[in-house]
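Lay summary. Proteins are chains of building blocks that fold into shapes, and those shapes determine what they do. In this project we predict the shape from the chain. Here is one chain we studied, written as its sequence of building blocks.
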Amino acid sequence: MEQRNLLLAIVLSVGILIGFQYLYEKIRPTPPPAPAPAAATQTVPGTAAPGTVAPSVAPGTAAPGTAAPSVAPGSTAPGSAPGGTAQAPAVPAYATREAALAEQKRVRIVTARLHGSIALTGGRIDDLTLATYHDTVDPKSPEVVLLWPNGTKDPYFAEFGWVAGSPGIKVPGPDTKWTAAGGPLTPTAPVTLTWDNGGGLVYTRTISIDENYMFTVRDAVRNAGTEPVALTPYGLISRTGTPHVAGYYILHEGLIGLVGNSLQEIRYSDTTALDPSKPPVDSSGGWLGFTDKYWLTALVPPQDEAIKTKFQHVQEGGIDRYQADFLGPAVTVPADGTAANSMRLFAGAKEVNLLDAYADGGIPRFDRAIDFGWFYFLTKPIFLTLQFFYGLIGNFGLAILLLTLIIKLLFFPLANKSYAAMSKMKLLQPEMVKIRERFPDDKARQQQEIMAMYKKVGANPLAGCLPIVVQIPVFFSLYKVLFVTIEMRHAPFFGWIQDLSAPDPTSFVNLFGLLPFSPAAVPTIGPMLMIGAWPLMMGITMFLQQKLNPQPVDPVQAKMFMALPIVFTYMLSAFPAGLVIYWCWNNLLSIAQQWTIMHRAGAA
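And here is the predicted shape, written in a compact code that computers can read:
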């Protein structure tokens, strides 16, 4: 086999993989749009979100046909007919976020990293924004909103409570009016909520938070009666509406958890895994919740307790509802005694160092909430190396350049051998032309003579492919790092690159900003024509490197290779700018190394 054929196969294979990744979002089926919201109205304080069932059936224990996300533990749910047959849902009426927050009494959450509030009706954590993350690169843009209260179009909240062990015991529910002591909630000042059920039980909920995104919720019960009371603690995260996801195969977005010592990753579309009639799964500790590309909400029960976990999904009136929940071990509150239970809630950004610290602090495999993929052993070290360089030089773009240089140095001996072999191949090209002219109609004889010539001079047609083979895993690992790590989000380089995780924003269509219009505003200009400056530079360096390689004798092959830089320029124009910068810089280093070696051999 000639070197050209093998090299062509490798490059085209890479192109197919990259093309598949790029086109996946374009061809994947998109979910039907959510029903348009009605005019914004204020909902009655304490009621469940339109169309939902108020919490009262234990997570993970409800009978088939009655369980529904944001339905918590134990009695017949309002809105259901006898036997679990759901009645026709009411017409939804959604409140604005501001209106929904204003209609309930709340305790503010004020930390360096989180802003929000706790609803005193229901005692839910349902209002959070991330103080240090914004919608755009502009630091004055709105903070990223993580949790949404009931009454809005897509409520997203965490709820905690107790399930009664026998009928007649009043436990807190979504309409419970808690009384707050203290506030606002800060890392140094917890908040205590209290509710007296009027039947001898006083419930106390103490909520605290650390310097980052971890809440601790301690629920205690005081029994002033004469009989012991059995209660079971629960925690749930409810999410209404299917969120927009990136849709890429390399990134998991959906429900996630460490259940039974096994990492569970369930997409929103996996209706089998989310069937509410499925029995709960036993686990010892672990964690479970929802993961977005950069954000995570996760329940963290005590790690030494046996729990029952469940992921579920239902659809009511065309509205999707998802829930991750767990049920802890039952406790008995003795007469004239108390009992308590604690659990934690993470709600924030998936920062690598932070999740590593929580994992080291006793939450097993919590760092796996960041989807480093099957090649975790390669992608995470690459990120940690980039982060180390960032700490030294203060720029992730420069860190990428430095990492590329170190990788080139590590594989310098291997590349030298490869480029030396390519030099021999280039010097043999005139002889290959003669062989083809001597046996124009005998392809088998051509191949036989060429292989004999390779053996005579000690040329290896496969050796020249090694630099490409080495580059492929590094390329995909760096792509993964740029795509999934929040540290790369809105990380600037220099000049017009203000976000290494986003494509180059410039375009040759408007001469890279010199003409007074935005290419995106012209409907006839598709995304494949939005070629930025860095993709163009990458294409040019790829073309220059290709000119150093032995040129195919076959004119058809030669034309195909000439087109590859153009094809890759178009494909990579939609990739993160950091990846394009890496490829361009890697090409420049390869050109310098290859030209030096081939010049010494007389092949350049």
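What the prediction tells us: Residues 428 and 536 are 32 Å apart (CA to CA).
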